[in-house]
């Protein structure tokens, strides 16, 4: 029995048709990102085989130039974005400075090519994160100004999750046809879930309010359960689908937190809010309202189910 399942390309084109001002530029941009991540997914799946890890400049059994997967992903994403002809500034977490591809390019794109890449050689899920702004000449814009954001999770299956302001949609790669199929329509974060996701090893370094919160949720009648992968895309994806609270807070060693505002926190906070959840940074303020000071700025982040964030805020 034939049942048509929408591909990512069809979905994005349909979204474009709904928008009277669309010129097809965003569709072209997203399609180039899609092509890049399909190639990255293929290499991630083979990463244990072609000895692609850790070496630079050698050649491998496949006579390909072997480079670290994150360098490869970084170069590939940049080239694909440049080839799209739709970008002004492109900023990679792997690079010190943004690159101005075309001053008149319509969109600025920030990306983390392979977040959690330290997990590659132990076969733990890793991900690509991207964040898209209108090119208004100024590279640094607050997260609220994002026109779209998304991630790709290279896991037991490869998933492309994104939002362009009309809810969050998930697409699962069907490797037999090389297409992302619309598997998760309009993802909504459950309002509550007793999952907490944090690196408990730093508990002695956390602020008093965080320590009191963590003690309290473990003493509830239904104690909260720890779920922590240590790979942001995996932890946020689980939080998006199942609910709970993901935290990478400030601590005495990292008073501004560990995760990058422009490359990790803004795109993930945008997605969580689009899916009906909440995201807060210092003093309970939304990270999307932070005026970025520099490209590599780190901020504390707590995000997830609306009611879980409300409970957390009562401890501030
Ligand atoms: P911590 C991975 O190195 C990463 O950048 C994120 O993917 C992950 O959420 C975080 O760092 C883990 O941080 O404090 O647990 O080492």
Q: Would you mind describing this structure in some detail?
A:
Helices cover 29% and strands 22% of the residues. Strands 2-1-3-4-5-6-7-8 form an eight-stranded mixed beta sheet, with helices on both faces. A five-stranded mixed beta sheet has the order 10-9-11-13-12, with helices on both faces. The chain is built from seven helices and 13 strands. The protein has two domains: 177 residues, Fructose-1,6-Bisphosphatase, Chain A, domain 1; 119 residues, D-Maltodextrin-Binding Protein, domain 2 (3-Layer(aba) Sandwich), CATH 3.40.190. About 2% of the residues have low confidence. Strand 5 and strand 6 form a beta hairpin. It starts with 7 loop residues before the first helix and ends with a helix. With 316 residues, the protein is an alpha+beta fold. The site of 6-O-phosphono-alpha-D-fructofuranose has 10 residues, from helix 5.
* Tally of DSSP helical segments: 7
Order of helices and strands: HHHEEEEEEEEEHEHEHEEH
SS elements, strand count: 13
Over the alpha carbons, how many angstroms does the gyration radius reach? 19 Å
Q: How many domains, in number, for the residues?
A: 2
Give the overall average pLDDT. Answer: 93
């Amino acid at each position: 029995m034939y049942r048509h399942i929408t591909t990512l390309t069809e979905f994005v084109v349909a979204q474009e048709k709904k928008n009277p001002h669309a010129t097809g530029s965003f569709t072209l941009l997203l399609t180039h990102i899609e092509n890049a991540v399909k190639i990255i997914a293929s290499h991630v799946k083979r990463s244990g085989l072609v000895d692609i890890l850790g070496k630079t400049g050698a050649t491998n059994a496949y006579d390909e130039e072997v480079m670290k997967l994150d360098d490869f992903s970084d170069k590939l994403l940049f080239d694909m974005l440049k080839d799209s002809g739709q970008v002004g500034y492109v900023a990679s977490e792997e690079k010190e400075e943004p690159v101005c591809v075309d001053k008149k390019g319509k969109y600025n794109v920030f990306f983390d090519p392979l977040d959690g890449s330290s997990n590659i050689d132990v076969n733990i899920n890793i991900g690509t994160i991207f964040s898209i702004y209108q090119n208004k000449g100024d590279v640094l814009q607050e997260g609220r100004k994002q026109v779209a954001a998304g991630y790709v999770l290279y896991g037991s299956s490869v998933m492309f999750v994104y939002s362009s302001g009309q809810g969050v949609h998930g697409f699962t790669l069907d490797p037999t046809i090389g297409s992302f199929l619309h598997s998760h329509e309009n993802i909504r974060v459950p309002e509550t879930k007793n999952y907490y996701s944090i690196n408990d090893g730093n508990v002695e370094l956390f602020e008093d309010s965080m320590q009191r919160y963590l003690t309290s949720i473990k003493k509830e009648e239904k104690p909260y359960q720890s779920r922590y992968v240590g790979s942001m895309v995996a932890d946020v994806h689980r939080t998006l689908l199942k609910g709970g609270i993901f935290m990478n807070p400030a601590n005495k060693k990292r008073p501004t937190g560990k995760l990058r505002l422009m490359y990790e926190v803004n795109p993930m906070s945008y997605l969580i809010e689009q899916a009906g959840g909440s995201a807060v940074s210092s003093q309970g303020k939304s990270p999307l309202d932070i005026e970025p000071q520099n490209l590599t700025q780190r901020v504390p982040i707590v995000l997830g189910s609306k009611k879980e964030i409300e409970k957390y805020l009562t401890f501030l």
